[in-house]
Design brief:
Its EC number is 3.1.3.89. 62% of the residues lie in helices and 0% in strands. The chain has one domain: Orthogonal Bundle (Hypothetical protein af1432). The longest helix is centred in the last third of the chain and has 24 residues.
Length: 199
């Protein structure tokens, strides 16, 4: 019997929750998170092209964002402080991610694998694009922190500061533009957003 479980495995992304060591007012799974990252990565590409005269494939950024956490279907979401605790742990986890990627790819016909091989994990060939996906990933995490903060949850306060510092240190004008122009709207209520649209 053929192994054609790849797409069925993708549907399991909704069962893998993020922020497992934190008190959440609203759970976020990697399916939701990946869509947000895809939206933001796409936006960063457009910002690069339209605001800073760049030439980035925004559609490719969206696809990389969609798939950037797919290996967590198998590995689960390892908390960032653990993942980056030491170079030894980071390298060991990278090995686990590579095994997970190969396992997922084995669930699709071989002639189709080339379309997914370069989107399931970062590649040296697209290192520049993956930088934007990483920024989008951090922006998505910051938005989660803002949402939790608005709900009165102080558990995300330190994470918010750490992520803000990380984004600042990325020195990416597209990120700065997104944070200045678009981030404030994430703190608005629906009524405030609709009123502004109507105004």
């Amino acid at each position: 019997m053929e192994n054609n479980q790849f797409y069925a495995m993708l549907s399991r992304m909704k069962y893998v929750n993020r922020w497992g060591t934190m008190r959440n007012t609203s759970n976020e799974n990697i399916c939701e998170h990946s869509l947000n990252v895809a939206f933001i990565a796409h936006a960063l590409g457009i910002i690069n092209n339209e605001e800073f005269n760049g030439n980035i494939d925004a559609q490719r950024l969206a696809v990389l964002g969609m798939y950037h956490d797919v290996t967590e279907i198998i590995t689960g979401d390892l908390p960032t402080p653990v993942k980056y605790y030491s170079p030894v742990i980071r390298e060991a986890y990278a090995d686990v991610e590579r095994v997970a990627k190969d396992e997922l790819l084995s669930g699709i016909p071989e002639k189709m694998r080339k379309y997914y091989d370069s989107v399931l994990l970062e590649t040296e060939e697209e290192n520049e694009l993956w930088k934007y996906v990483k920024a989008a990933d951090k922006l998505s995490a910051l938005i989660k922190c803002l949402e939790e903060e608005q709900m009165g949850n102080s558990d995300f306060a330190d994470a918010k500061l750490t992520i803000e510092e990380y984004l600042k240190n990325m020195n990416m004008k597209e990120v700065d533009f997104f944070m200045e122009k678009f981030l404030p709207a994430y703190s608005m209520t629906l009524d405030e957003s609709v009123t502004r649209l109507e105004g």
